[in-house]
Amino acid sequence: MSAAIALWRREWIRFWRQPSRVVGVVLQPLLVWGIAAVGFSGIFHFPGVDQLRAAQFFFPGIIVMMLLFNGIFSTISVIEDRQAGFLQAALAGPSARAGIVLGKILSSLTIGLGQCGLFLCLAPFAGFDLGATNWLLLATAVILTASGCTLIGMMMAWRLKTSSAYHALMSALLLPGWFLSGAVFPLPAQEPWSTLLRVNPFAWMVDLTRAAVYGAELPTALSAVMMAVPQALICLTVLVVGCGWIALRQVGGRHG
Q: How many domains does the chain have?
């Protein structure tokens, strides 16, 4: 844990020394949510839920997007650290190998929690009742989502040699995965597309976050096209444990 805390502190200092990243953390979700809410406000319609607005439907997906980008920015530094020689020095200590993985998760989680906290202040403007929000489930969803996104990014960054390759793979896999998660449009209920798109891990993240933010006021018509909370929790937990095991194996190996 001493190695993990040291790396977390390093990432935290690095974050505050990059003003553009700090500004992006605050403005990016606001811009994406605002543009999507305004752009789709006149055409968005969800069958069976007349009062559901575009701003309300997109809100949980934006939370997942924030945590995804936090995971990307936290783990792309692995490639930069390798090129600078820092990673090789960190790997010299046996305890630092697991600390690298834990440090990345902690840094992404810290920034993600702060970002989500600020963004949730806008939830009433989207039409949510914060009194009905399941805060325990929301905290669990944020922790699992942030950890999963960071570990997926860690697995990618550990195998790639350049930042350009990381960005290319991110554009080909991670961003399409988010778009096809139900964050932007409802997933179809018809087979086989329903089952196929439900294999997407980002769909589990969005469904769990949406169920938590709505809480007791989740519309029945909306819950019918979402994964049940227990299933989403199990799937996300298995994802985090599995990706964590793979990341630790990678860091503990000779690659890097």
A: 1
Cα distance between residue 2 and residue 157, in whole Å:
23
Q: Which domain holds residue 8?
A: 2-252
How many angstroms separate the CA atoms of 63 and 58, rounded?
Answer: 9
Per residue in 199-246, pLDDT (tens digit) is 899 999 999 999 999 998 888 888 888 889 999 999 999 999 999 888
Strand partners, 49: 46
- Beta bridge partners, 46, equal 49
Instruction: Report angle CA 71, 222, 228 to the nearest 5 degrees.
Output: 65
Q: Are 222 and 178 in contact (CB under 8 A)?
A: no
Question: pTM here?
Answer: 0.85
CA 129, CA 124: separation in Å to the nearest integer?
6
The b/e string for 5-25 (b: 16+ C-beta within 10 A; e otherwise) is eebbebbeeebeeeeeeeeeb
Alpha-carbon distances of 187 from 53, 156, 192, 240, rounded to whole Å = 17, 27, 12, 23
Sign of CA dihedral 248, 178, 189, 33: positive
Amino acid at 142: V
